[in-house]
Automatic annotation (TrEMBL):
EC number: 2.3.2.26
Active site: C1010
Catalytic activity: S-ubiquitinyl-[E2 ubiquitin-conjugating enzyme]-L-cysteine + [acceptor protein]-L-lysine = [E2 ubiquitin-conjugating enzyme]-L-cysteine + N(6)-ubiquitinyl-[acceptor protein]-L-lysine
UniProt cross-references to SUPFAM superfamilies, sorted A to Z: Hect, E3 ligase catalytic domain
Enzyme class label: transferase
Disordered: annotated segments: 1-21
Protein name: HECT-type E3 ubiquitin transferase
Superkingdom assignment: Eukaryota
Gene3D superfamilies from the UniProt entry: Hect, E3 ligase catalytic domain (3.30.2160.10), Hect, E3 ligase catalytic domains (3.90.1750.10)
Gene: HUL5
Residue span, HECT domain: 707-1042
Keyword Transferase applies: yes
Keyword tRNA processing: no
Amino acid sequence: MEFNFTGSSRPQRNINLGGAGGKSAAQLAAEARALRADRHMQKQRNVAATRIQAAFRAYGDAARTRGAYLADLDGVQWPHVVQWAAHLPEDAWSIGGEAWHTLLALVVRQMLHMLEHHPKSLGELAGAYIDAMAKLVPAQESYAEAQARLVRSMLRHGLHRALAAYMESLPVQRTQDAGLCMELMLRPFAVFSTSSDAFVEDVADSEAPGRAVALRGFVASVLTLPHLSARLPLGHVQTLAASLPLDEIEAHTQTLGSYYDLATHDEALSENPIHSPYLLGNLLLLASKRVPRMDGPQLQSYLVTLALLQNALPPSTFAAPTAEHDAVQASVGSLMDGDNEPQGESQSYPTLDEASYHNLRILVSDSHLHAILAQSTKHASRTRGPLCAFLVATLHAWPSAECEGVLTTVLYGYDHSIGRSAHAAHLPSVGAIVRELWRGYVRGNKLARQLGTSGASARLFETRKALVDESLREEWPVLVVLCQLYGRCLLTMGDDEFYPPDRLASGGKNPLSLDELVTLSGMLRNLAFVLYWHEELVGDGSGSAVVPGTSMPLLALRELATRLLQQLHTRDARHAFTPEGHWHMLSQQDLASFIQSVVLEERDLATPRDEMDVDDAPRAARLRHSVFSARTLAFISPRLGVLNNIPFVIPFEVRVEIFRQFVRNDAERLHISRDLFSRTSRHRATVRRESIATDGMAQLNSLGPRLKEPVEIVFIDQFGQPEAGIDGGGVFKEFLTTLTRQVFDTDRGLWRTNERQELYPNPHSYARQPDQLEWYTFLGRILGKALYDGILVDVKLASFFLGKWLGHQGYLDDLASLHSLDAALYRGLIQLKNYTGDVENDFALNFTVSDEEFGVTHTTELIPGGADIPVTKENRLSYIYHVSRYRLSKQIEPQCRAFFQGLSELIDPRWLRLLSRDELGVLVSGTDSPIDLADLRAHTVYGGFHEKDLAVTYFWEALESMDQASRKAFLRFVTSSPNPPLLGFSELNPQFAIRNAGDDVTRLPTASTCVNLLKLPAYASRAQCLEKLLYAVHSEAGFDLS
């Protein structure tokens, strides 16, 4: 800061008294050069501005001239011009020069515009336009450059689009005008005869090769035309089919497919023709006849194109719009057991008419499939992969009725339409394609190695990685088709056919050996488990989760893997072929947390007590059961999804514990005490011993779901006096076991037995009467009560009937299920299936079944018109399926419905799906294994005795000397059940106890079944103890025995 202020605010002047220096020569030269550069730049700017102004004026003048010219053209009397053009000489191109050719191009452009936008208003002029254009581009061997330029101009201005619009405006009938249009549409392929790999998105592209533009317009406008073949004269249809550049059209279509994302359904190309069902239909109509003459590369391209076009269309496209088809669809829907969810699409098309749908059905026709299979067998190495991708697309797109026919044709090669085998020389034998796909394309590939990884953590990691690995897009379709075909094989394969004499052998009946099935089931186990455990991969089926290389949702893949896995596990449960522990997925360390988590998840799903009263339980049960299907549970809870779909991956003992914990949770929610001696209110029933079934039905059936609550039974003896004893639970167990023994007696007419003396509902009309159906409902409630309370009952139920408990109401898992209903019928159907002679004449069967009741024979048709349809070699598999389904499901449907109504009121079907059918039988009635006395002795407590006392020693020696029947009678005497607990006597609650009943050896032993207590006098010898025990356990006396 300046502090020396002098009083003046004016700045001081600095005066330099030195002499001024002049510029140097270099500086002067530089300034001169800069001035010259500036003048040169200014000159260039002036020249450029002049040129720009000239170009602008020229463009404006040209535009005004063109506008005036076109205005004059619009005022031309077009009928005169067309009439003039129609009389052009053959050498019209040599009349004038370039101006002449330009004039012709303008005339044609105007014609195309009128045909595209005003086809109906032109009347006869439209035909004249087409004649004139055909005159300008005649059919000849070679074309002048000027003609090529004209054709290129026609293509750029929408030749195919205009002619297609005109054809669509005509009535759907064969006309010469339409035929001439088609000739003109094909003409560009003759003009531009050199093949081109170029692809154009827009026909207006002036730089694109002419043939590429022609392909684009032909595919987008002509092949998407509805009723194309019906509009053309027959000769033109044949010409079109023969001259169609199929290879180029397929390549072009595949390029169009690259603009469409199968997973997200996003479309990068506006108005992509692959979403038109008419493109697929017309292509099938025109190209399917070429299949028998295709070589390997041609068939490969053909199959890829068909798969792409099916994937690009919503499944609703392939549903026939007729009531008859709906009936057929319903009859086989349960066989395929699949869901076809609508896909997103970039365009919407109207519902197809019969003619258009008929064209689409060429794809799944026997003749078309046979031709494809025959050629694919000749060129297997090149075409098996594309064939599988084509089959995956077909099975995902078409309804289940058509899919069933496709699978049958691929497996057995039957031509259903003509009733004989077709192309038998080139088709593989029955099941051979399954063996070929497994051994040649699946077993050793990268996908199989990843899915078959061993080790708990590695299984999950490798399988999850395989589900999103695009490098496996060619391997996934083969595995999917293998699962579809083999699952279809198992439907009509008996157990005697499934198990070959040698583990390493695969006979003609079972295409895979048992060791191969162990490998395949391991892959499917890992795959299904990961898809349930990692639900985020699957979603709800409508998102972007699809199998790599296909449009098949991961949800559909999970259902397919689950279905085949269940079929294989069912066989393994009947007769084991897998090593011990093969099915299990979790380590011992993970099981404890699994139990805790799944119990909490199920508790969250249960309806709270304060939201629904027990009296509303039937309605509540229906609501919960309908909402929480197996698929929904998998989405809500991965662990419950595993337990309700593939429960066998968890050890049986763990699932039994989970089941019982579910019951405890339910009782807690309903405030039902599980303590036998609690003061909880009980339902009291007085039952006469000689009328246990009738009295039990009268007093307990009306309780409905309230049977979950404790029930106190008072028995009335033959003298009308109440028996001694207070029901602490044991009397009710005795009542329950006695009741089930009586009501499941076949003499009552409600049940029948098979060869193994296993029970199933009687199909007789008597059992379908309303009062008898009420008995079935009551029995369902009684068995539900037994399961709810953990009481074993001495009832052996048929395997197929137990399968219905798990939700398999109308689904036939395999033909072997029929064996548990009627072994003789099963053997007869197996004989029919494998018969090599004349089936129609030797068996003389039709699609009906007969039943005799009260001496009168009733005949039922298996399908509409079945009495007039003979069973032949070709349709015998369908007959076997319909007979099995009728006997296993339809004939006893009312009885089963009534039974399950009562059962579901007490036992949530979700809980039952934790078990297989054989495991469910064990849960209901226990095992047939011998009673393990060592286990019983290890879990026995004593009162008034020491385990070393002589009386105790005599007791165990007496028990060991009994046969199994007497031991079971003793167990019933003490616990009210003849079978031991599922997981051993450590589960018996309370534990089995022996109490000293005194020194009076003349007394018989007595029991308190409510506490599993034996009151044993101190007998003096083993023989004396044995005699008293046998008398007591076989007397079946009441509480007055002592």
